[in-house]
Amino acid sequence: MLSPKFLKQYIIRNMYRPKGRTITLLNEAINFEKEWIFIAIPKTGTTSVRRQLRQKGRYMINDPHLNINQLRDLIYIFLLRQNLGTNRKFPNANHIDDNEIRNLAEKIFNSFFKFSAVRNPWARAVSIYFRREGVKTKNSISFNEFIENYNYSSDTCLHSTKHKNQIDWLTSNNGKLLVNYVYKVENFSQAIHEISNMTDNKINLKNVSYNMNPHSKSIDYKRMYNDKARKLIQKRFEKDIDYFKYTF
C-alpha cells in the first residue's frame, strides 16, 4: 500500500498533463495544492471570493455553484480520469489502483479546509429577484409574486438543485454539516482574517466586492417587504434563519 503522502504528491503531479497538452483542473471550487474547498452558494457574495481564488486553467466542470456532496463525489471521478492510461512502463510498482484512488479521494475530502458563505434570507431573496444572471424575474413578475412562488433556495439557478435552504448546500444526505467554517457575508471583513488564521495563510482574501448589481435593492431590503411576504420567507427558510440566527 502506498503512503498517503506519496499518493497525494502523485496526484498533484499528474494533474498537470505532459508538455504540449492543456492543464486540466476539476473545478474552481477546489484547490488541490493549497488544500481547500469553497462552496459557492449563489447570491451570497461569493464572486468576491471566487475571483480572488480562481486558478487559471481548463476545468472539467465549469459550474462554480456545486454543493458539498457533488464536489466530494467529483474528487474521485477527477482523480480516476487523471490516472487512466498512465501506466507506461514495466515494472511499475508505483502505479496506483482504483482502491487507492478511492481512498485518496476520501482522504482529500476529509483533510481539506472546507468553507462557505451564507446570507440573510430576506436580503438574499431581494438580491435573487433583481439578479442579472440565471433565471431573471424582475421584469416579468412583481416582487410579491416572486415571493409567492419562491420555494427553494436554488429556484432561479440555471442548474437548480432544489435545495430548500442555503445550509442544504453544505450538509450530507443525513443532515450532517460537512464544512469546517461558514461565515455570514454580512461579516466578510471579519471572516477573511479568521480564514487566513485557520488555513495558516494559505487563503488570504481582500475585502473587495465584485458583481454588485446597482439596480438591486438588497442593501435596503426591508422596504421591499409587506407583512405577508416577510412571513413567507420566515416560514419557508426557517431552517437557515434558526441555524444562522438571522432576523428580519
Structure description:
With 248 residues, this protein is an alpha/beta fold. The chain has helices at 4-15, 47-53, 68-83, 98-111, 121-129, 143-149, 188-198, 227-236, 238-243, and strands at 24-25, 30-31, 36-39, 58-59, 113-118, 181-184. It is built from nine helices and six strands, in the order H-E-E-E-H-E-H-H-E-H-H-E-H-H-H. Strands 2-3-5-6 form a four-stranded mixed beta sheet, sandwiched between helices. The chain has a two-stranded parallel sheet with strand order 1-4. Helix 3 (68-83) packs antiparallel against helix 4. The mean pLDDT is 87.
What is the beta-strand fraction? 5-15%
- State the total count of DSSP E strands: 6
Helix content: 25-40%
Structural class by helix and strand composition: alpha/beta
**Strand order, largest beta sheet:** 2-3-5-6
Radius of gyration: 20 Å
Task: Profile the largest sheet.
Answer: 4 strands, mixed
Q: Helices and strands in order, then pairings?
A:
Layout: H1 4-15, E1 24-25, E2 30-31, E3 36-39, H2 47-53, E4 58-59, H3 68-83, H4 98-111, E5 113-118, H5 121-129, H6 143-149, E6 181-184, H7 188-198, H8 227-236, H9 238-243
Parallel strand pairs: 1-4, 3-5, 5-6
Antiparallel strand pairs: 2-3
